[in-house]
Specification:
The complex is a heterodimer of chains A (394) and B (860). With 394 residues, chain A is mostly beta strands. Chain A has helices spanning 208-216, 390-393, and strands at 11-12, 22-30, 36-41, 51-56, 59-65, 71-79, 86-93, 99-105, 110-114, 119-124, 131-136, 143-148, 153-157, 162-167, 177-182, 189-194, 199-203, 227-229, 234-236, 245-249, 252-256, 259-267, 275-284, 296-297, 303-307, 313-317, 324-329, 338-343, 349-354, 358-365. Chain A has a five-stranded mixed beta sheet with strand order 1-23-22-21-20, with no helix packed on it. In chain A, strands 11-12-13-14-18 form a five-stranded mixed beta sheet, covered by helices on one side. In chain A, strand 4 (51-56) and strand 5 form a beta hairpin. Chain B is mainly alpha-helical. Chain B has a two-stranded antiparallel sheet with strand order 1-2. In chain B, strands 4-5 form a two-stranded antiparallel ribbon. In chain B, strands 6-7 form a two-stranded antiparallel sheet. In chain B, helix 12 packs across helix 16 (431-452) and helix 13 packs across helix 18 (476-498). Chain B is extended, with a radius of gyration of 40 Å. In chain B, 34% of the residues are buried. The chains are: A mainly beta (394), B mainly alpha (860). The interface between A and B is large, with 121 and 103 residues. Strand 6 (71-79) of chain A pairs parallel with strand 3 of chain B. Chain A: Pfam families: WD40.
Chain lengths: 394, 860
C-alpha cells in the first residue's frame, strides 16, 4: 500500500528547519519519577485554555500555564490503586459546562473527574484491557471515545456514564487500538488506528438515536442498550507498521507511524466500506520508532508538534505545502522519550510530557529575539531499530 | 518557496529513474535517448501536475479547516461565557489563586542552564508538590485527591457475537497485514501470506495500468510513433518505476496492446457507451454457478464456510429427488401475470356441460398455447416427414405417444369445436373448479381412450401416471396442468378452425404477445384449412417462439432450466423463485410451452410434459450437467485449492495429522462421489469413515451409517447406535428419535441445543489426550466456561453432520443461573496453579483470587 505509484507521489517535507517561529524553554516541572504518557490542554472551554492535564503513573494532575512562563498546580488526583497507570487524559465537560477530566489507563477503567467538585464523577467500566487514548467530541463535549487494547473503541457519555456504542467486530481492529479522533465538523464520524496498521473511519449516523437517548437515560447505565458497530465506513492501510496517532485536519487525516502522513480518504459514495486513500504529504520524524509517541496540534491546526526518542520536539507547519519544518526544540537535559506533546490553542506554548516524569514548557518568542533555541541539524536516520513497547522502557 | 521545493522533491524521486533510463538508453541506441527525454519530460509534467493538484487540495482543505476551527473556537468561548455568571467556578478560582511554579530555567539562557532546581520532591506519583521560585523554593503541598479503587475486569478482548464466530473464523485477515513466522530451525523470519493469492494480485497490479502510466504511454507513442525501441524504452522505464526488476520480453507487447486499448477506449468514449447495464444478465449461469460451487458449502449451507473451506469437491447425489411441488393450492395465482389468470381471462366462460367447458377452455387457451400445439404439430410433422425427425431419437416414444394423444383427441372434441362458437359469447366459471374438472376430464378421457385403443405401452404409461398424479396430489395439477393443456390442445386446434375471428379478437386484446399475434395473422388467411392449416400455424409459431427466445438472455434461460429441474413445469414457482423481476409467470409459461417443441433446447430431448417421464429426462439432463461442471471445476479447482491452503491450514493440518495416525477415532469425513453403491474404491471407505448424507452414493450404500431406531429421547445409552458411535442423531438418517417439534422437555431436542451452542468451538480434542483445544481466539460463549475439578458438565466429541464437534453436556441437574464448569483436563505437570486438583496444590480456592497468567493449553 505504501508503494508509491507513478503520479501518486506525495510531497515530502525537508528536515531543514525554516525557523519561521521559534520557541524557548521557559519551565520544567519534575512531577514524579514515573513516566508521563499524556499531557493535554483544554480545548473545550475558553476559560481554561491555559489549563492542562497530565497523566502518568496513578496520578492525574491539573496545571495552569501562567503568562510569565510559570506553571501552577491546580489539582492533583491519585488513584488508590498503585497498580493503575494512566495512559491518557482528556478534557470534557458536563451538560452545564462544568469541566471534566477523563482519564484511562492500565486497568481499563475510565475515570471521569468532576474538577469543580474535586471528586470522581463516574468510573466507566467496560473495557477488557488497558485504554490507550481518550478523545472528546468537540461539538458535544459530553461524548468521549476510548481506544483500548481489547481491540475495541467505545463511545461513552461521561455525563450519564453510559457506554453508548462499541466499535468492534467483524470489520473492527484486529489488534489494540491506539488512537482515535472525532471528526471536527461531522459529529457522526471518527477515525481510529492501531497496531494492526490500519486506520478506520467509522460512522455512528445510524446509531445517533442511541447517543441522544444516552442523555436522557434515567435508569442504571448498565441497562442501556449498548450497540455494537461492526463495520467501519472505510479501512485504509497507508502505513506498513503500527499507527499510533491520528488526527483529522478538515477532511484529511494526519496519521503517525514511523513518519507522519497527511492523506485524504476518498470514499465511494454509494458503496460503503470501499474507497481509496491518497497520501498527499509526508512529515518525516527522525528517531521516532517507538510506539506510543503522539503528536498534537494547536486549535486552529497551524502547527504540529511531536517529540521523539531523544527528547527533541519537531514542530511542523501544517499550512504549508510541501511541508515545512518550523523548528526543532532540543535541550541538553531532555534526553528521554517524549511521549506526548501538547500545543496551546494559539500554538504559542508547547508542552512535552517526558518519560522521565518531567513536563517541559516551551514558549514562542518574537522574531526579534532571534533563535535562542539551538536548531540542531537533523540527525541522520538511524538504522531501523526494533521498537520496544513502552513498558519495556520504563 | 513552496513551489521551489516541490519540483525538487519530485526530482529526488524521479532522479534514480532518470539516470537509469538514460544510462541504459545510451547503451542501446541513439533513438532511445530521445525516447528517454520524452518520457522524462512527461514524467516531470506528471509530477508537476500532481504537485499542483496536491496544493490545490490542501488549499481547499485549509479553507475548510479555518471554518471548522473558527466555529470550534466560538463554541469554546460560548461555553466559557455561559458559566461566568456564577463566580463560584472552582477551577477558575484555583486558576487565579494558585501560585505559579517557576523553574530555574532561565529564559535567556535556556540551553546553558543545566540545573533545574524545581522538582516535585515526592517520587511516588506526586503526593506532594514542591515548587521553587527562580531562587527561593516555595513549597506548596497539594494533597492529591484520592480516587477510590475500582476493580478491574479480567483482560479479554471484546467479544462480539458474530455469525462469523459461529464457524471457525479465519484468523485475523486484514488488508495489508502481514504475518511473520519464525522458522524454528533456521531462525529466519518468514513473511507468510497467501502466496498464491498475492502472486496473482501482483500480476494483476502489474497489468492494471494506472492513469499516469496510460498517459505516458499514450503521449510517448503519439509523439514518437510506434517502434520497437520506443516500446522497449517505455517498458524499461515503466517497469523500473513500478519497482519491478526484470524487463520481461512481453512487456513491449503489453504496452502496444495497452496503447491499442487506449485508442479504442478513446473512440468508445467518443461514441458513448450504454451497454453497461445488461452486462450482468448476459453472463452465463455457469460462470455464476462456478463461484457458487466454489464458495458455497453444501454441508453448512453457508457461503465461504470456514470449516470446510472453499472449492470443495462437488458431490452430486446419485439419486435425484423428484421435482419439488409446493403445498399451495393449485388455483392460487402467483400474481397479476400468473399464467392461470391470463389463461382464464382469455377463456370464455361456459355455461354448457363440463365437456363444453373443456372445449371452451381449450379453445381459449388455443391462442396462448399455440406454441404448445405447434410442438405437437412439429412432432406430428416429424412423424409424417421422417426426414425432419433427426432431432429426437431416444425420446421419440413419449413424443409420438403424445402426438397420438393429440390425434386421438382430435376425434373427441369435434363436437366441442362445434359448440365452441356458441360458448364464445362469454362465460365465466370458477377457475378452480374449471381446472379441476379439466384435469378430471382429461384423465377420464385418457382412460377411456386407453380402454378403446391400447395405443402403445408408452402411451398407457403416460396416461397412467397422469391419472395417478391427478388422483394423488391435487397440488401436482399445477405442474401437470400444462400437460393437460397439451392434451387439450389438439381439440383446440380443431376448434380454431371454426372460430378464428374470436381468436383474432382475443389476440388483439393481448397485443403484447408476439407469438399470438403471429398466429393470428397466420390463421386468418387459411381459416378453412384443416390439417394443412395446422401445419402452417405450427410453422408460423416456431419462428414466433424463436423470436421470443431471443428476448431470453442466456442467464435467464439457464435459470429457467434449473427451475424446471427443481420445480417441474411450474411456471409460477419458477418465475417467483428464480426469475423474480426478470420474467413474469406468464412469460415463463409461454417459454416453457414453446420451448418444448424445440428439441435442441433440452439437448436433444423434448420435454415430455408428463410427470414421470419428465423425471427421467431431468435425471438425464442433470447428469449431463454434473459431468460438465465437475470437469470445468477440476480445471479451475486446482489453483483455487492451493490458494486456500494456509488459511484453513490451522485446522486441516491438524486434521491431517490426526488422520495420519491409524486407529484414530477422529477422522475427517470427506464426502465421496460414488455414483453407484460404494465399492472398494470409495474414498470414504478408504478413509475409514462412514458415508454420510453428503455423499453422492445412493441411500442404499452399505457404508452408510444407518442411524438409530430409538424411540424419542431414548438415545442416551450405548444401545442407541448413534450414541455408541458418538454421533449426534440426524433427522435425515434416524427414524424415530426426531419426532417432529421437540417440546423442549428433555431428551434429544435439548441435547441438540447444547451441541449447537458449542459447535463453534474449534475442535481438536479426543480421548487419547492427544488433541488440544485452544479457544483463545475462536469459540463461542462456552469458551468462557471455567474449569473446575468437580465440574457439572463434561465435554464430549461427537460427530455432527459429518464434522467432529465438542459438545458440553450436563453431568447433573443444573439449575437456571448456575455457573457451568467443566474439566479442562490439564496434564498434571502442565496445569496452572488454579487448575491443579485441590490435593495437588496446597492452597485451594486460589483460582478465584489470581487471574490466570498467560494461557496454558487446555487438554481434553
Amino acid at each position: 500500500m505504501s508503494k508509491i505509484t507513478l503520479g501518486n507521489e506525495s510531497l515530502v517535507g525537508s528536515l531543514t528547519p525554516s525557523n519561521k517561529k521559534s520557541y524557548k524553554l521557559t519551565n520544567k516541572i519534575q512531577e514524579g519519577k514515573t513516566p508521563l504518557y499524556s499531557v493535554a490542554f483544554n480545548f473545550i472551554d475558553a476559560r481554561y485554555f491555559t489549563c492542562f492535564v497530565s497523566a502518568g503513573g496513578n496520578g492525574i494532575n491539573l496545571y495552569n500555564c501562567l503568562e510569565d512562563g510559570s506553571i501552577s498546580l491546580l489539582y492533583a488526583f491519585a488513584d488508590e490503586d498503585k497498580e493503575e497507570e494512566f495512559n491518557t487524559a482528556s478534557w470534557a465537560c458536563g451538560v452545564e459546562g462544568n469541566p471534566f477530566v477523563v482519564a484511562g489507563g492500565e486497568k481499563g477503567i475510565i475515570r471521569v473527574i468532576d474538577v469543580n467538585n474535586e471528586k470522581i464523577h463516574k468510573s466507566l467500566v467496560g473495557h477488557g484491557d488497558l485504554v490507550n487514548e481518550i478523545r472528546t467530541q468537540p461539538l458535544k463535549p459530553q461524548l468521549v471515545l476510548s481506544a483500548s487494547k481489547d481491540e475495541s473503541v467505545r463511545l461513552w457519555n461521561v455525563e450519564t456514564g453510559i457506554c453508548i456504542l462499541i466499535f468492534a467486530g467483524s470489520g473492527g481492529h484486529r489488534n489494540e487500538v491506539i488512537s482515535v479522533d472525532f471528526h471536527p465538523s461531522d459529529k457522526h464520524r471518527f477515525v481510529s488506528c492501531g497496531m494492526d496498521t490500519t486506520i478506520k473511519i467509522w460512522s455512528m449516523k445510524e446509531f445517533w438515536t442511541y447517543v441522544e437517548k444516552s442523555f436522557t437515560w434515567k435508569d442504571d447505565p448498565s441497562k442501556f442498550p449498548t450497540k455494537f458497530v461492526e463495520l467501519p465506513v472505510f479501512t485504509a492501510s497507508v502505513h506498513t507498521d503500527f499507527v499510533d496517532c491520528n488526527r483529522w485536519v478538515g477532511d484529511f487525516i494526519l496519521s503517525k507511524s514511523d513518519e507522519i502522513l497527511l492523506w485524504e480518504p476518498i470514499l465511494k459514495e454509494n458503496s460503503p466500506g470501499e474507497g481509496t486513500s491518497d497520501v498527499l504529504l509526508r512529515y518525516p520524524i527522525p528517531n521516532c520508532n517507538l510506539w506510543f509517541i503522539k503528536f498534537s496540534c494547536d486549535l486552529s491546526l497551524n502547527y504540529l508538534s511531536i517529540g521523539n526518542e531523544e527528547g527533541k520536539i519537531y514542530v511542523w507547519d501544517l499550512k504549508s505545502c510541501p511541508p515545512v519544518l518550523v523548528t526543532v526544540l532540543s535541550h541538553n537535559q531532555s534526553k528521554s522519550v517524549i511521549r506526548q506533546t501538547a500545543m496551546s490553542t494559539d500554538g504559542n506554548t508547547i508542552l512535552a510530557a517526558s518519560e522521565d516524569g518531567t513536563i517541559w514548557r516551551w514558549d514562542a518568542i518574537n522574531k526579534e529575539q532571534a533563535v535562542t533555541v539551538e536548531a540542531q541539524p537533523p540527525p541522520i536516520l538511524h538504522q531501523y531499530r526494533r521498537r520496544e513497547g513502552k513498558s519495556q522502557l520504563k | 518557496m513552496a513551489s521551489g521545493a516541490s519540483p525538487s522533491s519530485s526530482a529526488t524521486r524521479s532522479d534514480p529513474h532518470k539516470h537509469s533510463t538514460t544510462s541504459q538508453a545510451e547503451k542501446r541506441a541513439p533513438a532511445s535517448k530521445e525516447v528517454a527525454a520524452v518520457i522524462d519530460s512527461l514524467k516531470k509534467k506528471l509530477a508537476a501536475d500532481r504537485c499542483i493538484s496536491i496544493k490545490k487540495r490542501i488549499d481547499e482543505n485549509k479553507k475548510n479547516v479555518r471554518g471548522i476551527t473558527q466555529s470550534t473556537m466560538r463554541s469554546c468561548m460560548e461555553r466559557g461565557g455561559g458559566c461566568y455568571k456564577d463566580g463560584s467556578d472552582l477551577l477558575v478560582k484555583r486558576q487565579r489563586d494558585s501560585p505559579g511554579m517557576k523553574s530555574g530555567v532561565n529564559a535567556s539562557d535556556a540551553d546553558k542552564s543545566n540545573n533545574h532546581s524545581s522538582f516535585l520532591e515526592d517520587g511516588n506519583a506526586s503526593s506532594t508538590t514542591m515548587v521553587q521560585g527562580s531562587s527561593v523554593p516555595v513549597k506548596i503541598s497539594l494533597r492529591p485527591i484520592k480516587m477510590p479503587d475500582v476493580k478491574r475486569l479480567s483482560p479479554y478482548t471484546t467479544w462480539v457475537f458474530l455469525d462469523r464466530n459461529q464457524r471457525m473464523t479465519e484468523d485475523q485477515s486484514v488488508v495489508g497485514r502481514r504475518r511473520i513466522y519464525y522458522d524454528q530451525t533456521g531462525g529466519e523470519a518468514l513473511i507468510c501470506s497467501d502466496s498464491e493469492e498475492e502472486a496473482i494480485d501482483e500480476e494483476d497490479e502489474k497489468r492494471a495500468f494506472l492513469e499516469p502510466e496510460d498517459f505516458i504511454i499514450r503521449m510517448t507513442l503519439d509523439q514518437l510513433g510506434l517502434s520497437d525501441s520506443v516500446l522497449e524504452e517505455l517498458a524499461n522505464f515503466l517497469s523500473r518505476s513500478s519497482s519491478e526488476i526484470k524487463v520481461s520480453a512481453t512487456f513491449p507487447c503489453l504496452f502496444l496492446a495497452r496503447y491499442e486499448v487506449l485508442m479504442k477506449e478513446k473512440e468508445v468514449s467518443e461514441s458513448g457507451d450504454n451497454q453497461a447495464e445488461s452486462s450482468l444478465l448476459n453472463k452465463d449461469m455457469d460462470g455464476a454457478l462456478d463461484s457458487f460451487d466454489n464458495l458455497f458449502c453444501r454441508r453448512c449451507l453457508v457461503f465461504d464456510c470456514r470449516l470446510h473451506g472453499c472449492s470443495q469437491d462437488l458431490i452430486f447425489p446419485a439419486e435425484k429427488p423428484a421435482p419439488w411441488t409446493p403445498p399451495v393450492d393449485e388455483n392460487l395465482t402467483c400474481g397479476a401475470n400468473c399464467y392461470k389468470t391470463l389463461l382464464k381471462s382469455n377463456r370464455i366462460p361456459a355455461n354448457g356441460t363440463t365437456e363444453d367447458k373443456t372445449g371452451t377452455s381449450s379453445d381459449g387457451a388455443g391462442t396462448k398455447t399455440t406454441s404448445k400445439f405447434s410442438g405437437k404439430l412439429n412432432r406430428k410433422k416429424t412423424k409424417t416427414f421422417p426426414s425432419e425427425s433427426a432431432s429426437s431419437n431416444e425420446k421419440c416414444t413419449p413424443e409420438t405417444s403424445d402426438s397420438e394423444n393429440g390425434v386421438q383427441q382430435d376425434t373427441n372434441p369435434e363436437k366441442v369445436s362445434s359448440l365452441s362458437k356458441v360458448k364464445a359469447s362469454g362465460r365465466r366459471g370458477g377457475r378452480k373448479r374449471n381446472n379441476n374438472r379439466v384435469a378430471e376430464r382429461v384423465s377420464r378421457r385418457t382412460q377411456k381412450r386407453q380402454k378403446k385403443s391400447e395405443a402403445s405401452d408408452t402411451d398407457s404409461i403416460a396416461t397412467g401416471s397422469r391419472s395417478a398424479s391427478d388422483a394423488k396430489h391435487k397440488d401436482n395439477e399445477d405442474a401437470t396442468s400444462s400437460s393437460q393443456k397439451h392434451v387439450k390442445s389438439g381439440s383446440s386446434k380443431n376448434s380454431r378452425k371454426n372460430d378464428t375471428p374470436v381468436d383474432d379478437s382475443k389476440n388483439s386484446v393481448k397485443g403484447d404477445d408476439p407469438v399470438s399475434q403471429l398466429n393470428a395473422v397466420a390463421s386468418e388467411p387459411c381459416s378453412d384449412g384443416s390439417l394443412r392449416k395446422e401445419e402452417f400455424v405450427g410453422e408460423n409459431v416456431c419462428p414466433g417462439g424463436l423470436s421470443e427466445d431471443k428476448s431470453w438472455r442466456p442467464l435467464e434461460k439457464s435459470l429457467f432450466q434449473k427451475g424446471v429441474e427443481i420445480f417441474g413445469m411450474n411456471s409460477c414457482m419458477i418465475a417467483r423463485n428464480l426469475l423474480c423481476g426478470l420474467k413474469s409467470c406468464w412469460e415463463v409459461f409461454q417459454y416453457m410451452t414453446c420451448s418444448e417443441n424445440k428439441a435442441s433446447f433440452f439437448g436433444g430431448d423434448a420435454l415430455n410434459p408428463d410427470g414421470s417421464s419428465k423425471f427421467d429426462i431431468n435425471g438425464n439432463m442433470t447428469n449431463n450437467q454434473v459431468r460438465r461442471r465437475s470437469r470445468f471445476l477440476r480445471r479451475r479447482g486446482k489453483v483455487r485449492r492451493l490458494k486456500y491452503t494456509w488459511k484453513s491450514a490451522a485446522y486441516h493440518s491438524i486434521r491431517k495429522r490426526s488422520t495420519d495416525k491409524k486407529d484414530q477415532p477422529c477422522r475427517q469425513f470427506n464426502p465421496c462421489n460414488c455414483k453407484t453403491a460404494c465399492g472398494k474404491e470409495c474414498t470414504c471407505l478408504l478413509n475409514g469413515t462412514c458415508c454420510e448424507k453428503y455423499c453422492g452414493c445412493p441411500k442404499s450404500c452399505k457404508n452408510r451409517f444407518r442411524g438409530c431406531h430409538c424411540a424419542k429421547s431414548q438415545c442416551r445409552s450405548r444401545q442407541c447406535p448413534c450414541f455408541a458411535a458418538d454421533r449426534e442423531c440426524d433427522p435425515d438418517v434416524c427414524r424415530n428419535c426426531w419426532v417432529i417439534g421437540g417440546d423442549g422437555t428433555l431428551g434429544v431436542p435439548s441435547q441438540r441445543g447444547d451441541n449447537y451452542e458449542c459447535r463453534n468451538m474449534k475442535l481438536l480434542l479426543k480421548q487419547q489426550q492427544r488433541f488440544v483445544l485452544d479457544a483463545y481466539r475462536k469459540g463461542d460463549k462456552l469458551k468462557f466456561a471455567n474449569h473446575s475439578p468437580e465440574p457439572n458438565c463434561y465435554a464430549k466429541v461427537i460427530m455432527v453432520a459429518g464434522d467432529h464437534r465438542v459438545g458440553i453436556f450436563a453431568k447433573e441437574r443444573i439449575l437456571a443461573g448456575e455457573e457451568l464448569f467443566y474439566d479442562y483436563r490439564y496434564e498434571p505437570d502442565r496445569a496452572p496453579a488454579w487448575a491443579r486438583k485441590p490435593e495437588a496444590s496446597g492452597s485451594k480456592k486460589d483460582e478465584n483470587v489470581t487471574p490466570s497468567v498467560g494461557r496454558p493449553k487446555k487438554v481434553a
